[in-house]
Amino acid sequence: MFCRISPSGGAMRTMPKDQETDTLSVVYSVHVIEGGEQGFLDAYDRIRRSVASVPGHLVDRLGQPIDDSRQWVITSEWETPEHFFAWQQGEDHRALLAPLRQWVDQTQSLRFRVVQETVGAEA
Questions:
Q1: Per the domain annotation, does 14 fall within a domain?
Q2: Is the pTM of this model over 0.85?
Q3: What CATH code is carried by the domain that includes residue 63?
Q4: Which domain holds residue 83?
Q5: Is residue 123 part of a domain?
Q6: CA distance 111 to 99
Q7: 3-state secondary structure string, the chain?
Q8: Is residue 73 part of a domain?
């Protein structure tokens, strides 16, 4: 069930069961090595251009840290978990991500479905 909460805190709008989506959200957090930002950005650019044509891929976003933590975040959305896992387990996936790995020393991947969303007053 997907719920959207109005900004005023009023009634939640719940998506009917037949309109629910299997959309998968993925958060990939990476710690970029010192001095590795440009190499990381170049590798990410190659990945995003490739993944844009993958069936089921909806959107990809790159978040830059606003402090000196070097902790970057890549988020993506997929039509279904099956689309994501087909891409992730495909032969090209490892080769595509290999150049990125030389620029990071820590990673964490989270996968989830959004079940509630609060929108701003202007949305």
A1: no
A2: no
A3: 3.30.70.100
A4: 3-9+23-118
A5: no
A6: 23
A7: CCEEECCCCCCEEECCHHHCCCCEEEEEEEEECCCCHHHHHHHHHHHHHHHCCCCCEEEEEEECCCCCCCEEEEEEEECCHHHHHHHHCCHHHHHHHHHHHCCEEEEEEEEECCCEEECCCCC
A8: yes
Q: Which residue has the tokens 């990125």?
A: 100
| 77 located within any domain | yes
Q: How many domains does the chain have?
A: 1
- Chain segment 75-116, per-residue pLDDT in tens: 999 999 999 999 999 988 989 999 999 999 999 999 998 887
The owner of tokens 């970029």 is 32
pLDDT tens track for 6-53: 455 544 555 555 545 689 999 999 999 999 999 999 999 999 999 999
Amino acid letter, 10? G
